[in-house]
Amino acid sequence: MRVVDESLSSFFSVDVPVGREDLYKRTVAVAEKLIPEPTAEGAHRFVGLMYPTIPMNGNCDNFALKPDFVERGVEFVRAEFLRIRVIDGMKIEFDILDFANSAGADGVLGWKGRPGQWVLPRMADTLQFRGDGQGEWVALNTNGEVVPME
Fold it and tell me: DSSP 3-state assignment of 84?
């Protein structure tokens, strides 16, 4: 499996210079091969494809998902609006300008007009923070329950 993973990472992680966006056609070709049309019974072999992102040298992932799977199997959690200040190789510096943790039935995000924050119900409450291994902070209340960002 590791050989396949490394092979696909190399395949998808080519440098795409400006004006050579045709190199992204690799993604389309693989997706079309691995995500076929439904069978006569309506079944799919795959509902999505995860592949390394080309501009990040395979260190991040992209997802191509069938719309019907998204409608029945994906729930909106949150979105952040970022301003990128510096890109230096694989290092990116950015500012979080806005935060949304809700979406209306029409799909319009409920932007807060500020970055996300944790809110304590009472002044005497405390939170403990830990990293989630993906570069995000997780806040826990005194009962060890995750406190979502608001």
Answer: strand
Give the 3-state secondary structure of residue 28. Answer: helix
Q: How far is CA 94 from CA 27, 39, 91, 146, in A?
A: 28, 45, 10, 26
Give phi and psi for 71, each to the nearest 5. -60, -35
Q: How far is it, in rounded angstroms, from Cα 94 to Cα 135?
A: 14
The DSSP H or E segment spanning 25 is helix 25-34
| Residue 132 predicted with pLDDT over 80 | yes
Domains of the chain: which residue ranges?
A: 2-73, 79-147
Q: What is the pTM of this model?
A: 0.61
Mean pLDDT score, 24-47? 67
CB-based contact 98:80 (threshold 8 Å)? yes
pLDDT of the residue at 7: 74
pLDDT at 146 over 70: yes
